[in-house]
Design a protein that fits this description.
The structure holds two protein chains of two kinds. Chain A is built from nine helices and 15 strands. By secondary structure, chain A is an alpha+beta fold. Helix content of chain B is 72%, strand content 0%. Classes of the chains: A alpha+beta, B mainly alpha.
Chain lengths: 366, 190
């Protein structure tokens, strides 16, 4: 049977034009031959769609004819919800208003300029990301009490930890050198660090570079055990713009992970000490490690621009490495040897944080 | 007075019966009764008069097919039903063209419309678009033969005369050739 003949037979069958015995024969064929059966189903579906298509075209033609009699334009005018008068006023007069406003703005700024108000940088001061847990006045009376408060909590009875500032620091070496910001430990009477398990260790400020806002702490507590090998490396070379970055720290005294992007290779007013970073960090993130996507430390999260939300700065690692080099030899037991093997690279963010969190400390200042 | 009568809203059962009876007058009454309502919805929600026409006609088609298929149950006012269908179709269209601002300004009360209600309509539309383009690709005289025979139910005799075939067998052979090609064109579209 040719294709055409088969089609004709199927159509006769579907249209009920077959005689009883022919119909029986064909139904038997359908049952035995799956190909014929599927052709029947397919053809039936096709004819239904074709028929419905025709009906649809006809209905659309009818609707369009009706539609053509409707006065769209008048109806549209009537039905548009007209904006309130102030919007209308703006639409009609916005060019004039814009000119007037520009004149006003120019006049304002030129007055500011001539009066010298714009020349000082005082209006964009940087405030540090210190977390002022309590506004304790660090008077002498506090001094003795504070120092007494720093005790290893593992040994003796639990003591109330009365620190006034908390921030973040991270291990440079496994034997207890910790980097943080100078502004965190500035005016500190005493310093301690707390690890991920909540154990607190006494520390001292080993070296500072106030001009770069860098401080190196050394854990002095006897109970401090040497850390495992530091998992991250330090990247001296400048990072690329738009690098995916992350940090881990203690923004409000509790551990938190944040990620963002490197938004500028320049800090405030174009300084080359800082990177500008876009990430939601908080007071207390100061001194935290800033990692790139591979887990290299590319900076120390530093401070918050006082006037722009979400914009922060980080000190470039180059300055940290220089600071480490500048530590006077006599204050160190041995030469600082930095980790050269990055074991974070290739890990997921989750795994990265899990591995690195033991090397990030909460810095407590008394 | 006559104008008033012309613009008056038909009762819901008048519309349903009209559709079932293929009444042109009822269809026209239905169309003109609710079009302003949909125009208002669309042009105040990021659309224009052409969008209003498209959406409204689609909704009328949905209603029409449901009534014709006999599975239309009027559980609310017809006006509310039409508004709800249009609202649903327009929200979908808005998100497809990325003009949806996350908020729609409503003018009538509306019912929640089941996804399948418009989905079914959508599936059909896809099939019809395919059929439309298959027929266009098919070309003449096949296109007219197909339409005459399968859509307008003309007899082979009629078609024979129209196209000047000398005998019915020739016309029949031609018809099946056209049909094979049309089916091929239709089914090969993804």
């Amino acid at each position: 049977m040719s294709d055409n003949q088969l089609l004709e037979t199927i159509e006769r069958y579907l249209n009920g034009e077959m005689k009883a015995d022919e119909r029986k024969k064909f139904e038997l064929l359908r049952k035995e031959n799956a190909e014929v059966d599927s052709k029947v189903v397919e053809h039936k579906l096709f004819l239904t769609i074709l028929k419905q298509y025709g009906e649809r075209v006809e209905l659309e033609t009818r609707l369009n004819a009706i539609h053509d009699e409707v006065d769209i334009h008048t109806m549209k005018e009537d039905l548009m919800v007209h904006p309130i008068w102030i919007v209308q006023f703006w639409r009609n007069h916005h060019s004039k208003i814009s000119v007037a406003a520009s004149v006003g703005i120019i006049a304002f700024f030129s007055t500011m300029w001539f009066s010298g108000k714009m020349n000082s940088n005082t209006n964009s001061e940087i405030i540090g990301l210190k977390n002022r847990v309590e506004r304790l006045d660090k008077s002498n009376t506090n001094l003795s009490r504070s120092i007494n408060a720093i005790k290893s909590e593992k040994g003796g009875k639990p003591v109330v930890d009365k620190y006034s500032i908390s921030a973040t620091g991270f291990a440079i070496t496994s034997d207890g050198l910790i980097a943080t910001n100078y502004h965190v430990v500035e005016d500190a009477n005493a310093v301690s660090v707390q690890n991920a398990n909540g154990d607190t260790y006494k520390a001292e400020v080993l070296y500072t570079e106030p001009q770069h806002d860098i401080a190196i702490l050394k854990v002095t507590d006897k109970t401090f055990e040497k850390l495992d090998a530091v998992p991250y490396t330090f990247k001296r070379a400048e990072s690329a713009l738009a690098e995916q970055i992350s940090t881990y720290g203690y923004p409000e005294g509790f551990p938190a992970y944040n990620y963002g992007a490197l938004s500028s290779l320049y800090g405030q007013n174009g300084d080359t000490l800082h990177y500008k970073i876009t990430m939601p960090i908080n007071f207390g993130n100061s001194g935290g490690p800033l990692w790139d996507a591979k887990g290299n430390v590319i900076g120390i999260t530093d401070s918050k621009e006082a006037h722009f939300e979400g914009e922060h700065f980080a000190i470039k690692t180059k300055y940290l490495l220089d600071a480490i080099k500048n530590i006077p030899a006599d204050s160190l037991g041995a030469k600082v040897v930095l980790n050269k093997k990055n074991t974070l690279s290739g890990l997921s963010e989750k795994q990265k944080v899990a591995k690195a969190k033991d090397f990030v400390f909460m810095v407590k200042v008394y | 007075m006559s104008k008033h009568l012309k613009d008056s809203t038909p009762t819901d059962s008048e519309v349903i019966l009209g559709i079932l009876n293929n009444s042109e007058a009822a269809l026209k009454k239905l169309y003109t009764a609710y079009f302003p309502m949909i125009m208002q919805l669309i042009i105040n929600n990021n659309g224009d008069a052409d969008d209003a026409k498209d959406i409204y006609q689609e909704a009328i088609i949905v209603l029409y097919n449901k009534v014709k298929a006999g599975d239309f149950e009027l559980s609310s006012k017809l006006k509310t039903y039409i508004y709800s269908i249009c609202r649903r179709l327009w929200l979908k269209r808005l998100s497809q063209i990325n003009r949806y601002a996350g908020d729609i300004r409503d003018f009538e009360e509306f019912l929640p419309i089941e996804e399948e209600e418009v989905e079914q309509h959508n599936d059909r539309n896809i099939q019809f678009t395919k059929m439309d383009s298959a027929l266009k690709q098919l070309g003449e005289p096949c296109k007219t033969i197909m339409e005459d025979f399968y859509i307008h139910n003309r007899s082979m005799q009629d078609i024979c005369e129209r196209f000047g075939y000398t005998n019915a067998d020739n016309a029949k052979t031609q018809k099946y050739k056209c049909l094979q090609r049309l089916k091929k064109l239709f089914f090969q579209q993804k």
